[in-house]
Hints:
The chain is α/β, with parallel strands linked by helices. Helix content is about 25%, strand content about 25%. It has a domain at about 65-215: Vaccinia Virus protein VP39 (Rossmann fold, 3-Layer(aba) Sandwich), CATH 3.40.50.
Amino acid sequence: xTPRFHLKPESAGQGMTSxxxxxxxxxxxxxxxxxxxxxxxxxxxxxxRHLFIDEALASRAYEDTALPIGNGxxxxxxxxxxxxxxxxxxxxxxxxxxxxxxxSGYQGAxxxxxxxxxxxxxxxxxxxxxxxxxFRNLGLNLRTKHDDGRLGWPEHGPFxxxxxxAAGAHLDRSLMDQLADGGTLIAPVGGSATQKLLRKRKTxxxxxxxxxxxxxxxxxxxxxx
Length: 225
Ligand code: SAH
């Protein structure tokens, strides 16, 4: 697949933020991270993650680590983004997806790069403003909302997929109500130190719940700022 995003000449080929750095990250996600879905790997290969973090940290953009994005929040680790995206696409062919916790915008941008229609909700206005600018600069078309996303975005539901990128003690019922039949929801659920990444699917046989392993996310917080 040809990269969709063309970097400005002065930033292309600049060591730590180059296409090569991204290629190496993707090779590691495949060989060490066990990520198999080529659609996901190719989206991560084409999307410049360094544009989703502060310039001062850009040289670390292709390390497999979460990084601070301000307001006490973090951009998720590439492996977590890849794994969650893969898990979301594994069953069915989702078209419309809701993300709770826009943050840097990277996870949402990965989903949009995969051709999904993305709705994303963020409670911190400042982060959302910066994420919106990134989407615009990359020519990505996501629908964004400044709100407490714990109750989803009912006006636009049902969604084929829902991805929650902050951890709550439980999942709100109204979020499950916004999941379409056949749809998949992925969310970290648990305490503040560590959580279980849960996948819930609405199948013909009823609700199927799986534990995809332990993860660490920033907390899902109520109210907006
Ligand atoms: N998907 C993001 C991850 C950011 S961290 C990325 O790729 O960068 C999680 C984000 O969830 C934070 O920005 C945090 O402010 C946001 N968040 C926490 N609670 C929320 C809530 N109730 N509604 C919406 N966003 C929330």
